[in-house]
Amino acid sequence: MKKILIVITGILFFTVSTQAQRYITKSGNITFFSDGPLEKIEAVNNKVNAALDSQNGMFVFKVLMKSFVFEKALMQEHFNENYVESDKYPVASFKGKVINISDINFKKPGDYQAKVTGQLTIHGKTHPVKTTGTFTVNDKGIKGKSQFNIKLIDYNIEIPSIVSGKIAEEILITVNIDLKPLKQ
């Protein structure tokens, strides 16, 4: 009986400790900004799924491309049909790691610099990304913020010559996530 109690206690302890190490969101925010010579274009996506394992630093997010919202409906239509081909490539994703995870104290409120490296997939093409960001730890979870640039050519996103002055060749990506502890 004593051995069974020890095993059950061990299983409960393991379950509770692993829950506190994983954080998720289904309502993260990603924006992209194109500062072209003739026009500034911005789109926002508030339906970003993200997960972070604070134990090993694994970090992933997925973005439904059709969830990007533009100021002008025509821009949104062109984005989905002509540029990122959302029907053919419906999801963009990132799979990577916080490489300085040991520098972040997830039990102590505060701001921590995070160094992230991984693979970003857009439009069926994958390229390495290396960036820094900030994790703000509080009693409700973790807020993450980062910015980085991508080149459209790296992801085979072609800009027709007729609109080449409107769309920048390099796009600024901003990630804002509010991660909550995973409850199982």
What is the tally of beta strands?
9
Mean pLDDT: 88
Poorly predicted sequence stretches spanning 5 or more consecutive residues: 4-19
Question: What's the N-to-C terminus distance?
Answer: 27 Å
**What is the alpha-carbon Rg in Å?**
20 Å
What series of H and E elements makes up the topology?
HEEEEHEEEEE
Number of helices: 2
Question: Any idea what the CATH architecture is?
Answer: Beta Barrel
Give the tally of structural domains. 1
Q: In CATH, what is the homologous superfamily?
A: Lipid/polyisoprenoid-binding, YceI-like
Briefly note the CATH topology name: Lipocalin
- The general outline is elongated
The proportion of residues forming helix, as a percent range, comes to: 10-25%
Regarding quaternary structure, what we see is single chain
Structural notes for this entry:
This protein is α+β, with helices and mostly antiparallel strands and 184 residues long. The chain has a single domain (22-181), classed as Lipocalin, CATH 2.40.128.110. 16% of the residues lie in helices and 52% in strands. It contains two helices and nine strands. The chain has an eight-stranded antiparallel beta barrel with strand order 1-2-3-5-6-7-8-9. The radius of gyration is 20 Å and the shape is elongated.
Task: Tell me the layout of helices and strands.
Layout: H1 2-19, E1 22-35, E2 40-53, E3 58-64, E4 69-70, H2 73-83, E5 91-98, E6 110-122, E7 125-138, E8 141-151, E9 170-181
Antiparallel strand pairs: 1-2, 1-9, 2-3, 2-4, 3-5, 5-6, 6-7, 7-8, 8-9
